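User: Predict the complex.
Assistant: Input components as received:
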Amino acid sequence: MAERVRGQTLRLTAPVYAACWASEGGSKEGDGPLSKGFDRISRDSYFGCDSWEKAETEMLRGCLQLCLEKAPSPPDCILGGDLLNQCVSSAFSVKDTGLPYLGLYGACSTMAEGLGLAALLVDGGGVSSACALTGSHFCTAERQYRFPLEYGGQRTPTAQWTVTGAGAVFLSGAGKGVRITHVTPGRIVDAGITDACNMGAAMAPAAFDTILAHFRDTGRDFADYDAVFTGDLGAIGHDILQDLLQREGLSPGLRYLDCGVLIYDLKTQDVHAGGSGCGCSAAVLCAHILPAMTRGIWKRVLFAGTGALMSPLTCQQGCSIPGICHAVALEWEGD
Amino acid sequence: MAERVRGQTLRLTAPVYAACWASEGGSKEGDGPLSKGFDRISRDSYFGCDSWEKAETEMLRGCLQLCLEKAPSPPDCILGGDLLNQCVSSAFSVKDTGLPYLGLYGACSTMAEGLGLAALLVDGGGVSSACALTGSHFCTAERQYRFPLEYGGQRTPTAQWTVTGAGAVFLSGAGKGVRITHVTPGRIVDAGITDACNMGAAMAPAAFDTILAHFRDTGRDFADYDAVFTGDLGAIGHDILQDLLQREGLSPGLRYLDCGVLIYDLKTQDVHAGGSGCGCSAAVLCAHILPAMTRGIWKRVLFAGTGALMSPLTCQQGCSIPGICHAVALEWEGD
């Protein structure tokens, strides 16, 4: 069973492993620096479908299927969510599996939220395995959150590029490899940012709050982790978080990385401040972080998924953008 | 720790109680047969705010606050969700509490999903208490899912009325009273219904699937429950589920009830097929079921929250409407 370490952080006492995983990406992700880590890259933004929303669903369905093909048995339940209104791409991608489904909404933090909750369910003993699933699609996100692509709108320098990508992780109480050791569910932090084209700034204070809580609760520091990943702060949010950490006397140095900065080549891929979306941290986790851990590159990683909990409507009604960050500690226990 | 009974159902082995709860409703709910059970009724559909979306947020915030005022301590985390795009009313209602937040999307099944997950987290030992929160507002749902109210659109006879209401339940490992004994997370069932004005028909097959799974897994039957509640099938869905159960040889008789049928007077309140929305089962749970259990009216109840996992966009793109149902077994262990 899990035990509360202190404050917000739960320590898992039962063994819970990321037994297998899968990732899928779109064309731009296939041209990016992490392309080789993906299980599958689709050069067709429609994924063979007749709408982008159906394409997003198909991408998630395919990614889940790839993950389940690697798994020793079907998971006892699937935890999933996405950015589309009413989280339809995850629900529709799961509906033909016949497996119990728990829908989440954590915006771009969904992989961390799902991973953490799935790990706690396995740790709790009720399920022996569970799958966390999420993803996003650039074209659906643009038309839902910003402008129809046909409009050809200009993007501001602080804007991020929604990742077309998906990730699925199968967690199990049996096995070895990457173990989930701690979960720090995040609090909502609203720093008053109202610019919906500057998500990094809106989410950085939440990342700061959760990472600090995790360190305070566990007595750990950056020195205890080989790498700490935020979800999708992008270049702007990454720098803001660096500043906040330094003011607190913390010096992450090269140990602090952001999935939104890693997934694209920011100099050549015209993505402005970097990647974002549920698919960003999910794909980087499954195409980069977990594979690298199994190759021994990092032994202990903090995966801090970040999300912005606004909607186009709350922005139109003048509300500021609340951020959230959930952190999951991963540890390589391999041979 | 929870243990898998069989199939989909988890039995909680640690004591987990619904220690306190709160409910809030709008004007129509205040005129309905359950009005006396609500903690608070607002006759102002704006709840003192300048938009209905802000009103929904304010209602949820107020309901959560009422619940937390009754609780012996702040919960270790809040699990919440709602129907608004990007689940903004629950996120915005929680953001100033400073408590860890896990966002859910279960459509109208959100209370059952949140209650089940919160109970499993408490059972798992990681948190000592957790709060499940959800709600809905007629005016926000109409303009998001159907037409702006100003349009004065005609409603079809199978249409349901989104409940303006909210419910919050504080679960704790300590105490006595209503204990959560089993959780049956549901599978998505898509019966091919495409009429977005007939949600009861879309959700009834999912309710059938989960209730049957719960009975099969636990060896229980309608005779083992004093009452079995579905979330918001309404009059049409209620009758469809009755038919499905009878074909299976099950005769629920008067033990099967639907929250969407109970919350309004279907003959006089012009709600057509009955109530729906996240607030429907949440408010009926907190304003009727839990209070009645503490008065000894029912000793053992199955709370089967139902949800339709479509969006306006999936309906526009010709997709059918997938349903889901999560069931939570409640048992009175009072004096």
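The first helix of chain B runs from residue 27 to 30.
Let me know if you want any component modeled separately.
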